[in-house]
Known about the structure:
Elements: E1 5-10, H1 14-25, E2 30-36, H2 39-49, E3 53-57, H3 65-75, E4 80-85, H4 88-98, E5 102-105, H5 110-128
Parallel strand pairs: 1-2, 1-3, 3-4, 4-5
Helix pairs in contact: 2-3, 3-4
Amino acid sequence: MSRPIRVLIADDHPMVRSALASFLEGLGDVEIVGQAEDGDEAAELVPKLQPDVVLMDYSMPRMNGAEATRRIVASCPNVRVVGLSFHAAEFGEQMCQAGAVACVTKSSDLDELVAAVRIAGTWQARHLR
């Protein structure tokens, strides 16, 4: 069995972080290694925790998800960011330009989120070997 996909969740809503963490850990192939309440905290945690994937909300205080993604991709290019937001058209392009490998809206089906995390995590693991 391969190791679980290590995920950091960055979202300014504690309930969203907690629900996502519980759901993703319940899948069996995902390990939540940390949680951040804003982009600044996420950018600080990534080098320390070395997740495979960061699930990054776009709209957060102090530093938005696009700026945090730019910093993460610059400092840890092997980490893959999956953008997450309520505002698909507004955030998707900005997140992808910042370096996110996928973007999922919060109104999407959970299967879409799972697929994005697994694809990003699997890509990351294949390219580190």
